[in-house]
Amino acid sequence: MELTTAAPRRRSATRDADGMAVASFILGLVGLLALNVVLGPVSIILAATALFRGTTRRGRAFLGLGLGVADLVVLVAFMSADNTLSWSF
């Protein structure tokens, strides 16, 4: 009696890209509230990579891209309103 098993499934590039699109959206959203100097660029990079890899969640990727840019705009707005180029504690 021969026992056969199914071949292990490999994660597809589309599935990885979908995860990147969702992560980009979430990090961009959190970046509006805290750590926008770090989370903004990460969100932009993840969104661009997800779009390049052909995600099926293009809307989420574009939202993540927009929120990442908004994170950086908020950072620049706060820095210009405070007339400083760095954080002071």
Automatic annotation (TrEMBL):
The chain crosses the membrane at residues 20-49, 61-81. InterPro entries: YqfX-like. It comes from the Bacteria. Keywords: Membrane, Transmembrane, Transmembrane helix. This is DUF4190 domain-containing protein.
